[in-house]
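Format notes (please read before filing issues)

Several people have asked whether sequences and structure tokens are stored in separate files. They are not. Every record keeps both together, in the order shown below: the sequence lines, then the token lines. Line labels are part of the format and must not be stripped during preprocessing.
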Amino acid sequence: MSDTKISALPSIAAAADTDVLPIVQGSGSAAATRRVSLAQLRGGILADRAYHVRDFGAVGDGTTNDAPAIQAAIDTMATSGGGVLEFGPRSYRIASPVVVNGAAITFQGAGITENPSGTNGTWLRIDSIGFTPFTFTGTAARGCSVRDLGVRQVHSAAQVPGWEPTNYDFVFRVQDCLGGVEFRNMMMVGVNRGIWCDNSGRLNVERLRGQVFTTGIQIDRAYDTCRIQNIHFWPFATADDDVVRWQQQNSDAILLQRTDGVFIDDVFALGARSVLRLTPSASGVTNKVYVGKLYADFALYPIWIESSGVAAQIANLTTQSEIFNAGGASLAGASGIRIDGNNVRLQIGNLRIDDAESNAIRVNGSGNRLDVFSLRVLNYNRLNDGSAAIHLADVPTGTPNAIYLGSPPLLTGGGSGPVLNSGSNGHMTLGAPSGRLDRPGVTLGFENSGLFAPSATEVAVSAAGVEVLRAASTGTLTLGGASGAHGFGVSTPANSVNRVNVAGAVAAGTPSIAVQGNDANIPLALIAKGNATIRLLTRGQTAFEVNATGTPSNYIRTDAAASGGPPRFLAQGGDTNIHLQLSPKGTAYVETTAPLRLPAYTVATLPAAAAFARCLIYVSDGAANRRFAVSDGTSWRWPDGATVS
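Then the structure lines:
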């Protein structure tokens, strides 16, 4: 290049792409003048620049249909591998479909201002029905994102009782992408349906706020983990009573169908039928839902599970179910948690439910299990009809429903409503770990005193680290020490109908041990071990002892008697003839405190003397001084030795 001054160069009307222009590279002694064409300069400056919708004819005046211009930009970008498509701070009317299917494209807005009019920032305006405004479809669209813009729909119906929204389709459909599409920092003002995702896992929705009338986010056939976080649905477009109350009967903030693993966190929704609804589709049900924090305000069924076999975990959940702007009245039929499926497994860490009309938690179906660590219920049983805070449906056939509480529930404002409904075979349990002797699962005052489970079939009680009671599923109960070293035990045979009842007594009364049961006559057996005796003690000393010799078959029976009759000692047993013996100790004698009465016979009716050797009888018709007779084993003899005759 010559050293001609720039001021001396000839002028031209316009530079062509081939015109050579001087540029200086470097500075100081390293500066050098280079030749470059205008085309080269343009190419360098515009290399990798983001696309802008205005370059393809978008006007952004809120009136012109900008969808064709946006589609033209997308088609051009698809030929060069995608990129960023910028939207200026304008209102872009969308009146025809836009489809992304050839490359990963980022829709980049210029930010949004929270307001009901859809102004200030980047807004997409929709005012006609019968089409899907934006569709991301096919595997080439994986990686697309929509950022920093708002959506506004026009609803012309008068806001009066019976109001319904205009039946717009979902604004965004993610269909058959088989992979991730992202929505971030967006606002939906007065939108009927927001985001639909089908057959496309790894959906990511972050910082979405607005007012959605029918469905906020709906997902089906998501076979890889989706993420939904920082959601804020509130009456941004209108807080009209008739509109919000329509939402309370018809709107689902997040609706999940067949999804395999979903992470949900920081969700708030005001005015909805449900905030999290799990419902089945032809492809299956939701499994493995993880919720961090969720707050449902003015919602009919904040958590609504219609699917069967669902597994879900919620860390922190707060619900409130008043009619919007109605002075505190509850929505008809409202429950904080409603389960209509079967075999649901729902775990909740901290749960607060306010203003349920009847039941704070209502579990229909069968085989459902809820685990709630901490439960607070404020204002349930609003109808004052005795409704329970927790309702578990009765299950005549199948597995009953159950709820396990990690701590006693805190119930306030429930009137006469109980914790759990009656008339159901469902059960509520205050759960705890099995524990051990020195650290029971349920502690009472001290960490080594309480209830624990020595095995899967036993429960036991420890006091100061010492086992004092154990009960087994076989019906065995031990008291006073560890099983095997206990002081008292109770065994219950299978199908037992007879039992022993021990009863105390009031002052001057007599404690008792009684036999009870179904049989009309029930014996009571006291059984000593081995050859040991049975003793009755009074004043600390043995007052009566029962013993047996050899292998006994003969025994003594005592009979009480009615008034006027004598009590009796009777010899009983297997032998035909059994003697009854009174044996004093040592050289002592047998004494009576009243005359001893002998059996009376006549001379003609004397029994055989051989059977009664050394026995004494009274002979009623003997001669003078001959009334007593003694058997010598052969004959009966008078006291003078003469044979009785």
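For reference, the curators noted about this record: The mean pLDDT is 90. Residues 168 and 414 are 42 Å apart (CA to CA).
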